[in-house]
Fold this sequence. Notes:
Elements: H1 2-16, H2 23-39, H3 44-53, H4 58-82, H5 90-99, E1 110-118, H6 124-142, H7 147-154, H8 158-161, E2 166-171, H9 177-185, E3 195-197, E4 200-211, E5 229-238, H10 244-263, H11 267-274, E6 286-291, H12 297-303, E7 315-317, E8 320-330, H13 337-340, H14 344-374
Antiparallel strand pairs: 1-6, 1-8, 2-5, 3-4, 4-5, 7-8
Protein name: Peptidylprolyl isomerase
Keywords: Isomerase, Rotamase
InterPro entries: PPIase_dom_sf, PPIase_PpiC, PPIase_PpiC_CS, PrsA_foldase, Trigger_fact/SurA_dom_sf
Amino acid sequence: LNQLIDEKLIVAEAKRQGVTVADAEVNRQAADVLQDVRGRFATPAAYQEQLRKENMTEERLMERFRDEARRSAMVQRLVVKQVPKRTPSQTEAEIYFKAHKDKFPKAPAELRMSVIQIPATADSATEAAARVKAEGIRKRIVGGEKFAKVAGETSDDETSARSGGDLGYLVKGTMDPAFEKSVFEGKLNSVSEPLRTAYGWHLVEGLDRDTLKTAAGRDSTDAQGTPLLEAHVRHILIRVPLSDDDVARARATADRARAEALTAKDFGAVAKRYSRYAGPHADDGDIGFLSVATLQPNIRAGLDTVRVGGVSEVLVNQAGFNVFKITDRKPEHEYTLEEVKNELPAAVGEMMFRERLDEYVKGLRAKAQIKINKT
């Protein structure tokens, strides 16, 4: 509610100061939003059906988008005029950081682990049938059918299928390695060959690639200062059905691997023999440090009481059955200057901008309150 009030105050002030936005710009932005909305439906008929359910016409929807585009542009222009952004120098940023450490988030707890992962796999005939199905679907798209339509009809990912297979923007480093390789190395607007992940067979199409932007429009970076990449992706998933025997076989293998890992002097040797982990890892199964916050709840709970040097119970996730060895722990802590030095000017600049914007809006609120009291 407060955010809505603030926006209305800024729009009112923009009008008072004579800030205007050309109709052509408003129409262009609204048309882009409408096109995006249409593209999230498998067929034009599905889009029209949703409009009917919401008692909405496309003309009224377009008018709403125009209004939102105009207000958004007016807010942006007034803010740029009244609260210009400035990136502080490295020295200024470091002084701010040291004086306001309480304003910065803490570095999350991390675990360094090695893993033995045993995926449940289907028999060869079932696996081959799923791949053949994926190849047939790809032929339909290459032959001229719309990706969104085919995704809506065939994808086993029911959530994205309703949006024509659209997964939105995904950040590099957060996906299955094979999937990510296709997304960031494949040709844009071209359907991949079927590729296998723990989820099944995918057909992947990258629609756009860029660096992940901060609210200030700058490149986001990791702790080493490397720009973070993201891609707009859509996919079609063909799951490979597993039988109870397939799952039981994988579980038995994981139990056997854990029993050996508990008594072995070299966890890495056991990992080499058993693990089918597909992500980045060393030969001994080491997957480096991972933020505890990024782990699935059941994995996090299963590792919570494992001491450094200890081996976990068999823990299950989408990829299969996992046995982890904890090799190091880092508790949650305040970031040191060295950990954030590279991205500090951009981060501090954004924080200082937010502070100035808050003060500006407080001033608008105060003026509005005075007017109300006078009336």
